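Practice set, problem 2.
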Amino acid sequence: MILEMKVPSPGESITEVEIATWLVEDGDYVEKDQPIAEVDSDKATLELPAEESGIITLKAEEGDAVAVGAVVCLIDMDAAKPEGNDAPKTATKQAPKEEASTPKQEAATYATGTASPAAKKILAEKGIEAASISGTGKAGRITKNDAENAVPSMGTMPADGTRNTERKKLSMLRRKVAERLVSVKNETAMLTTFNEVNMQPIFDLRSKYKEEFKEKHGVGLGFMSFFTLAVVRALQLYPDVNSMIDGDFQVKHDFQDISIAVSGPKGLMVPVIRNAEKLSFRGVEDDVKRLAIRARDGQITIDEMTGGTFTITNGGVFGSMLSTPIINPPQSGILGMHNIVNRPMAVDGKVVIQPIMYVALSYDHRIIDGRESVGFLVAVKEALENPIELLMDNDVKKALEL
C-alpha cells in the first residue's frame, strides 16, 4: 500500500510552506515518526515526521514552496526493511556537486567566451568585459546566470587572493521577517525614547541571593525576571503601551503577554511568556529558560510565538551599547536592553562608578503619545533602580520564594 504524505497545517492562517531540507534521500527506508524533512513557514521551521514505515519517494525538491495539504512524498508501506542497520542509498546528493566540480572538457569553438544576448546586456550594465569571465554554457558560452553572478573587478588582485561569491535563496522565515520589518517602518509612526538605568541595586540582590535561589529552584536569578516584572508594572500604569491598532479601533489588553526575543538556529525567535502579571521571579526565570531551550533546539511552535502584547529584546548579550529596536507587529511597543558598562555617575552629590545600562523604548506614535512613552520608560527605570520596594513589596525572601 502506498501512503501519500501531505503537508500538515503548521498553524492558523498559514497556507504554504517551503521544503528547507530533506533529511532522507529518495529510495531510503524510513521508520514511522522519523524526521524526514525540515519545512519553513513564514513563522517557524518545523520537522516533518514520517507517518508510516517504508520506502520513501520524494515528490518535492529542496526550496520548493508547497501548499498545505499537498503531497510531498510517497511511502511504500509494503516494502520490506533492508537487512542490516542502514538502508541502502540511492544516488547521493553529492553526485551532482562532484559532477559540477569536474565538468566535461569540450573543444573550444566560436561560441567559447561569447555572451548570450541576455548575458551581454547584463554585462554591459555592470561594465564587465566578456573576456574577463569564464562561461559555463555549452562549449564555454557565457550564460545569463554567469553574467548575473559576475563581479566587477576592483583592480589587480594578489596572486593568492580570492573573489568567490555565493548566491543563496533566503528561507521563507527570513523573507517573511524582512517583509514585516519593512512593513513596520513604512506603516507605523515609530519613534524611540531612551533612558539609563543604574543596575547596582539588582547587582547587589543577585550577588546576595543568586546561589540560594538557584539551589532552591534549580534556575538562575537573571536580569530578565527583573526586566519582565518591571515591564508588567509599567504596562499596568500606562495601558496604551499594552495596546494595538485594529483598523479604526484601539484594542487594549488587561493582561500582559510578554514576547522575549531569543536567538535560535534559524534566526531570531520571539516566544511569549503568557500572563506574566501572574508570575513570580521564579515563574519568569522558569519560562525564560524553557522557551530559550526550545528555541535553541528548534522545537518552538507557532502557538508559542503568537499573541504577545509587548516585546523585550536584549541586544546587550551581543555587546550592543544602544539601538532603536523595531516594533513587533501588531504590538505597539518594544523595550531594548543593552550591555552593562561601568560609568561615572552622580550619586548623592558625588561622582561614583556604577554599572549602567542604556534602555530604549520604540513605540507607535499613532496611539502612544510622548507622555505615555516617556512615563512608561521612567517607570521601568524606577522599578529596576528600586526593586525591593517596587517589585518585591519590601519582602525579598517572599518575592524570591526563599
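Problem 2, part (b): a different protein.
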Amino acid sequence: MVVTHGALQATRGRCALTIGNFDGVHRGHRALIDRVAAKARELKLASCVLTFEPHPREFFSRDAAPARLTRLRDKLELLATTGIKRVHIVRFDARFASLPAERFLEDVLLRGLGTRWLLVGRDFRFGARRAGDFATLEEAAMRHGFRLEAMPDVLFEGERVSSSAVRGALGAGDLRRAERLLGHPYTLSGRVAHGAKLGRALGFPTANIVLRRPPPLGGIFAVEVEGLGPGVASVGRRPTVNPVPVPLLEVHLLDCDQELYGRHLKVCFLEKLRDEKKYDGLDALKQAIAQDADRAREYFARHG
C-alpha cells in the first residue's frame, strides 16, 4: 500500500476511490473498501482511499469532537490489511476547510487523484460549508465523465455499523459488541514513556503510554499486548495519586518483566474488569491492583 500526503500534482493515473475518516476501520468501512477494490480490478484502475488528518470534526469542534477510535498510524496499519493500493491523506486545516466544493472536485478528485469511479454514502457532504452533496457529485459525474455509486448502510447482526456505534459500545464497556462491529478486537497503541515508577514501588510495574487525545473507553481491563502476552491495563486519570489531565494507558504485564521504555506497544482490550475508582491511600490502591491482576488471570484461565 502506497501512502501519500500533502499537495496533489496533476496525475496521469486513474483510480477507483472512496472518501472518509475511516475511524476504527470497522466492518462498514471494510465493505466499502472491498467494493472499491473489486471495482478497481474490474475496471483496471488503482484502488484508492482519501482520508483526513485531523478528522474534520476535530478541526471544527476541537475539544467537543468525539473520541478517536484509532490514531493515524493504527488506521493505516488496518487499511493495509484490506488490500487497498493507495491511501492519500489530506491535511484538514483552515485552507482545506475553505475550499469550495467545485474546487475539491476538480483539484483533488479529478486532477489530483484521477478519479474515474467513486463510491460514497448518500449522506456524504464536502467543500466549504458542506455545500457539496451526493446530488452535486451526480451532476459532476455527468459533466466530467466519471462513474458514481452510492454505498448503502452496512448491517451486522441487525445493527447498523458505524464509528459512533463502536464508540457507544466502548464507552459502555461492552467490548464484545465493539469487536462484533469492528470485526477485530479494539486496540490502543503508543510508545512507552517514563513515569513516576509508582507501580514498581507497589509491586506492579507498569508500561505508561501517553494518549494524545481522550480515548473512547476507560476503566480497568484484561488485555493482550502484542508480542508480550497477557496483562491488566488501566485507562484513566489516576485519581488516587498523581492525577493527569488526559487519560493515561498503564499496562502491567502478568508474565513478563522486560524493560519496555521507548518501545511501541499495541494493547488489545478483551474484558472490562471495573470502572476507575479513587482509593483512600496507597495500601488500598495496592490491594485493588492485586485484585485486578487476579481477575485478569482468571479471565485468561477461562479463555486460554
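Answer key, part (b): The first helix runs from residue 27 to 43. The chain has two domains: 2-159, 186-302.
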